[in-house]
What we know:
Blueprint: H1 2-20, H2 35-42, E1 46-52, E2 58-66, E3 72-75, H3 77-80, E4 86-89, E5 95-96, E6 100-105, E7 110-114, E8 143-151, E9 154-169, E10 172-177, E11 189-192, E12 197-204, E13 212-216, H4 217-221
Antiparallel strand pairs: 1-2, 1-4, 2-3, 3-7, 4-5, 6-7, 8-9, 8-11, 9-10, 10-13, 11-12, 12-13
Amino acid sequence: xxxxxxxxxxxxxxxxxxxxxxxxxxxxxxxxxxxxxxxxxxxxxxxxxxxxxxxxxxxxxxxxxxxxxxxxxxxxxxxxxxxxxxxxxxxxxxxxxxxxxxxxxxxxxxxxxxxxxxxxxxxxxxxxxxxxxxxxxxxxxxxxxxxxxxxxxxxxxxxxxxxxxxxxxxxxxxxxxxxxxxxxxxxxxxxxxxxxxxxxxxxxxxxxxxxxxxxxxxxxxxxxxxxxx
Length: 229
């Protein structure tokens, strides 16, 4: 009798588990975004970046991406190389100045920037919009978006795939992507479909048509404070 009761109990437990199981939770499956949604997420966390001469004219321009609510940001080293004065222009027209280079690496083509405090720039909720860093490595064929400022008042987004997550280019590991990159987008973000920063735009590969170079997050993290790791 006890054996029969135990068997019935097990069957009922199994049926209950089947009825009430609803599959993986939203926490197990990261939300994915299309190009329109990705632009909405990233547009407030990027800025037009210009290196200024003593007369106020720009000697070089590019794109910066904000990495923390306090104003830690990043760009490509070649954009700010030997810069004496740097300022940024946000999507809403807010001029961010002065911007300081706190750490840089020419070989990695990364520069870490410090923006003025959010309070000084009158940012909403006393914090900058920012992009979180992706934790895991990209995969071959994964969809990605490139964002940047080819023109001062014109941020653009392009869509592509990861051609390879790791290519040896001049002794450094680089992500290769088919997401199109125009002059002025250097330093901007490569975004994955979960709204996370997957790399920093570095340039184009001359030996391959429409293949572009991205600094990986490992090289970026190596210059960031320990709190990002």
